[in-house]
Amino acid sequence: MPPPPATHCSSSVVLARQTPPNNPVSAAARIAAARTAERSPTISAASRLAATPLTGELTTSVEPAAPAVVPAVPPHEQPQRTFAPKVCWEPEVQGVLEAALGAEKLAEISAALARPPLATCLRVNTMRTTVEDLLRRLPEAMTPEDAALLEANPAYQHPLLAGAVILPGTGPHPIDYACTGGREVIVGRKAGEAVMRGAHVFVPGLQAVSQGILAGDLVAVSIGLELPGSQRYAFTRGTVLGTENAARQVEKLGAAAHDRSHLFIGIGRAELNRTEFFQERGGVGITMLERVFRTPGCGGLLPGDFMLQNVCSLVTAQVLGPPPGARVLDMCAAPGGKTTAIAQLMNNQGEVIAFDRTHAKAAGVRRIAESFGLSIVKAYKMDATKALLEPPAAAAEPAVAVGAGAAGAAAAGAEAGEGAGEPAAAAAPVKLGRRGGVSLPPSATTLRRLERVAQARELRGQAPISSALVAAGQEAVTPGFPPASFDYVLCDAPCTALGLRPRLLHRQSLRELEQTATYQRKLLRVAVALLKPGGHLVFSTCTINPGENEGNVRWLLDTFPDMRLIPQSPRLGLPGLSGTVTLPDGSLQQLLSESEAALVQRFDPSAPLDTIGFFIAKFEKAAAA
Ligand SMILES: C[S@@+](CC[C@H](N)C(=O)[O-])C[C@H]1O[C@@H](n2cnc3c(N)ncnc32)[C@H](O)[C@@H]1O
């Protein structure tokens, strides 16, 4: 095997290899050097790579130098290293999308979906700070490297979205992988998608690695995709590339199954030796040093001052646009991004009732609202398809408002009841159960179990997912809401999420697409019923599937003659799809008329706006006669 080419980074690799991997002094020095590297203000590929743990301290270790290890994958087996992915669809789904969008457009969208949007969007908590103040403090809170990225591409306030700050990113950048000396790691699809959004590679995400990798080595990182129609990867997890075993696997499935040539996403530094990669259960396995996409990282900074939120979600909240004092229902609220955006737009005046299906999700919404100082949000564990309180069921069992706190169930229940104009029975303590389609509060056993889980999570240093629920102990209840309870309803429906980016594979079948659309109609029926005459309903999804979007708008308009589409502001998306789509069984799916299509917003991920795929429709219910 020839030595790696003599570039700045290949010589670095040689230096790194002179350090024995298991020497604790060296390991500590490596970590220190890595931290220094992370704090380095320089951002060029050269300086980042040169900043890997290659100090004199390392190379003067008292341990004898390890013998140089040759790159593991023979040159003829080394793939080309490029980045040009496209999302893969189930064939039937691809057929329907092509019929609706056109083959050329779908190809463009498929390429865009496989990349992350370049811009990061933050929603500033205007209850606590201002856009200007955040723009001033953010670089100080970032790592110097991220701050330097930000300085090169300054953040700005979005001209149309209140409280929105855009942090521009760049990419895809060509990367010279010569310095890796042929060493590589293959990561699973989800890990790869996370890396494209700025994560490092965690050990469970590793699929296959070159032989002979030592901690500190630079490696080319690529993504392995699942085999068509299967959850399995081409290489079994733990495969060592360049071995006979790997060659046998390639022979068995064919080279195409192992093709990752267009899925290289950057250069990283191994944090473990090859033999340790598949023994460890957690932790960072590869620290990414050079990425195909460069975006300044700001997750977890300045807690409570801003939230990462995509542009389309902010548009949705603003399109709903409830004024202060309004009574709003967010039917599918977790994790709470739009709920809190709406409450913020209302200047924390009025009431926002938020539902989600599980205690943990409702608790999460409550927690986020609290951390943003938004007291008008009341989060309930509630199946929104069962939230309509028809008069005969007025005394049915209650749903649970999570985290109502020490004020106690009765008080909080009364509070929810008053605002809703429900019968007095709604606020009274009611026998709990699952009958009447309303959810149970957690039993004492469940609460004890949750407490144990919370403690275990705390010990492991993980986020206390259930702790708000555990702490609450006492919960407010509501049995649901009578018809015409809300001025504004948001139905940000669970969907097939075919618009999320980056995604390299969508496994959903056509049947799942249809089932999801049907489920959304159940939610929309309740949404329409709970809306007051003259009230506004916003329906949104993060999918490009016309059946869930225009198809469901068509259904709603045909089913509820008192509902009509109305214009939206702001308008950043494109018009929706009009006409019909022929489904694989030969049936026709009706979409919108031209004039209806002009009223909805469809966000095309391949359009210059560079958002996720998203859809928004806004309806008005006819005023009472
Ligand atoms: C698209 S996500 C909502 C995102 C949220 N609106 C936001 O902006 O942060 C859909 C949510 O609907 C919830 N969901 C699904 N079915 C539901 C139901 N029947 N009732 C209430 N929530 C439901 C899911 O748990 C999921 O959290």
Topology, please?
Layout (H helix, E strand, L loop, with lengths): L7 H10 L6 H16 L5 H6 L5 H4 L31 H11 L1 H11 L6 E5 L6 H11 L2 H9 L3 E2 L6 E4 L16 E4 L1 H8 L4 E2 L3 E5 L7 E6 L15 E3 L2 H10 L10 E7 L3 H4 L6 E8 L14 E3 L2 H10 L6 E4 L6 H9 L5 E6 L2 H13 L5 E5 L17 E3 L7 H12 L23 H16 L7 H6 L3 E3 L7 E7 L17 H21 E11 L8 H10 L3 E3 L14 E3 L5 E3 L3 H4 L3 E3 L10 E8 L4
Parallel strand pairs: 4-7, 6-8, 12-13, 12-17, 13-14, 17-18
Antiparallel strand pairs: 1-3, 1-11, 2-3, 4-6, 5-10, 7-9, 9-10, 14-15, 15-16, 18-23, 19-23, 20-21, 22-23
Helix pairs in contact: 5-6, 7-8, 12-13, 18-19
The protein binds S-adenosylmethionine.
S-adenosylmethionine binds next to helix 13 and strand 13.
Number of strands: 23
Q: Give the percentage of residues in beta strands.
A: 15-25%
Number of helical stretches of at least 4 residues: 20
Mean pLDDT: 80
Radius of gyration: 27 Å
Sheet with the most strands, sense and barrel status: 10 strands, mixed
What is the helical fraction, as a range of percent? 25-40%
| Low-confidence parts | 1-71, 403-442, 463-475
**Overall geometric form:** globular
In whole angstroms, the N-to-C terminal distance is 85 Å
Bound molecules: S-adenosylmethionine
Structural class: alpha+beta
